[in-house]
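hi!! sorry for the late reply, been swamped w classes. u asked for the two structures so here they r. pasted raw, havent cleaned anything up. first the sequence of the first protein and right below it the tokens
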Amino acid sequence: MTDQDVAVATPPNNEDPERPDRSIAEQLVEQARTDGVDLVGPGGLLSNLTKQILKTGLAVEMEEHLGYEKHSAEGRNGENSRNGTRSKTVITEVGPVDLDVPRDRDGSFEPKTVKKRQRRLDGVDSIVISLTAKGLTTSEVEAHLMEVYSTEISRETISKITDRVLDEMADWQNWPLDRVYPVVFIDALVVKIRDGQVANRPVYAAIGVTVDGKRDILGLWVGTCGEGAKCWLRVLTEIKNRGVEDACMVVCDGLKGLPESIEATWPLAIVQTCVLHLIRNTFRLASRADWDKMARDLRPVYTAVNEADAAGRLDEFHQVWGTKYPAIKGLWSRAWPEFVPFLDYSPEIRRVIYSTNAIESLNARFRRATRARGHFPNEQAGWIQPVNATPGGSFPSESSRSRASAGVRQPSRLRGRLFICAATNSR
């Protein structure tokens, strides 16, 4: 029997090598309970662990920088060596941590674990932006951090943290888009913005459905006056200039002149009027007492099998309500060419394209922020930034930008969570 004839069976290793050893965690928790130490908070288990990890990371970086371990004889050769430490307090996700950062004699040590002049870990900035996105004012964020994390961050610092994302927002506003979007949803929401004095300003929003069936926020634009077709033409032209050569269907409200603006931008695009907007406009021309009955009579119109069936159902509706509300007949007559396109599709697709509900998630976040603040202090505060959209997502990195320039399509930058870069000025 030779060595080649012998095979040693190795037991399968089903454990994830990156998973922390649970027994170690249990020992730490048990030791903390024995010593009467809290798991969280100042001086707690997590705080001490964070401090130890940061301290170890700094020590390892210093050893790699100098090329020898601490107390080694190699440090006595007269070249660069350790030169004591400097104390600093770093704000982390588990609270403030006091560190002794090692120094070298020639001052060339540039730590990466905790950088020079860094007083906060990146996770703290994410917490501040997230709380601001949920509509909290700077005073409320300051109080929350003190109450939950025992961390004191001034309102001025909170404002600076949120201001840092403005450059990323500008990059996102100019990011190249796909050549074709099967469906584009556009809508505007009026918000209060202070520009000398508080005034109502429209925020134009556009969402595109990609050929993969995913959704991208194409952009957000704060208007200077009321919503109008000319303003929409500028917005659509900018979208086209960013690479969108064509849109198969554009879903919009019934704003006068908007179909012409869409046709001027993408001549072959089908314009679909939002059915919900059309129904609401119908109700505005009728007495509130008749709304329930009119809603029941209108349902057969927008659930019809095809255009001919819908036309017959609409005639029946006008026979009941046309005499009492003649203006409604004119409203539907004008909107009919943009109302009927969705009737050519199956019920599953109709539910997607019959309204601008795809943008309502954006509008809901605007309303949440304005409810908390009353108004936005400036135009930048009214923008929405889709960061951390995917579980590991953020704005594209430099490497992804280079791939984009090479013609590789980037992943959708809208998958779920949206952060509102809301007002950072305290009221």
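now the second protein. again sequence first, tokens right under
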Amino acid sequence: MNKRKFISLFLVFALIANMFIMETLADDPQQEQTPTRSSQSESSQSYYEYDQKYKDKQRADSTIALDLSAISASSDTQLKEIEGKQAAVTGEDGFVEFTVDVPKEAKYKLVIDYYPVEGKGATIKRGVMIDGAYPFSEARNVDFNRAWKNTVEYNNGFEFDNKGDELRPTREEVPKWMSYSVTDASGLYDQPFEFLFTQGRHTIKLQSEQEPMAIASVRLEKIEDLISYEQLKEQYNDMGYTAASGETPVIVQAENTYITSQPTVYPIYDRASPLTQPFDEAHLLLNTVGSTNWQECGDTITWQIKVNESGLYKLAFRARNNFVSGRAVSRRLYINDEIPFKEAENIVIPFDSSWQMIYVTVGEEQCKFYFEKDQTYELKLEVNLGDFTEIIRSVSEATENLNYVYRQILMITGSNPDPNRDY
């Protein structure tokens, strides 16, 4: 038996569940004669229908990068340099359109390098059009997160009032260049959208819906499936990685966040357990983060971590999920903006009114991660629907179909049907 010791990275979280059903109205029903959504236009079909239609098409084997020279049309757009990069800055009502020549028919994911320009502080929203039309309904509403941080540096706590209670730090935006793979804003799909491009010339238009944004480049990237944890272990073995030998765990207090995607995800206090550190029975201390402020799909919290010894580490979170009785919640794990393996897309936190230690596991095995000494790593958790994704998507699709049929009936009967009439 392998008796090597592994160090754990402990974080404290307050987690809550979020389960919702999105109702997206279809386009004008008068355009159709039969009450079936499958017969509607391309722009009003769902991504599920689009994906099923082209599921047998080949994925691309190379990436196509588009810089600002590929811009063929724009409105309410200015070209300027931002933090060393040339960018096209679009306002709340403008658009920017890129032209791309695709060598052969294939499916790509769409990656956008963007900078959150100062605005009203809300989530940035854009519509993505291909050749002048939305390929599916979800492409009308794509979210781009901002980055927020605490204004007070964490030094075993923040600031305190004259009573000894810890003061919640204010939040400020810290704009920076970020890359985003275009994904469903509602969280109903686990993976980035796969766009089909036929051979030849195409246009990609980013239509402003909310908040200004700067764009440096657009990439049509090849789509690669995530490796499994077993494959990652094989890579570690081939590289000769071994367990770290330290006896003391590396602990990062969860309230000491690096950045968050929303300004409302800030440190909070919890006095349910004296094991939650820091703890003081007489004073209010900020010792957790999350709770009801961290529940929308796509919302993220990022921490920075360092280790004193290179090697393999286990990763664990001290968490509590007590929002909806009996319902588990899920988070997606990123390390340096990359999902380390397939199973890390769905870290399940079971319901429990008490705090619990949640290890990243595959089956019964606690996963190990390689960290290099003195290197700063960014550890990010993202809200997702987890095991509920397919269920909620199916219910959402059924709800849309029922709404569509209902509107078709209303066109004939009106809102107050005549009981004496044979429709």
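hope this helps!! also noticed smth abt the second:
The CA atoms of residues 275 and 355 lie 9 Å apart.
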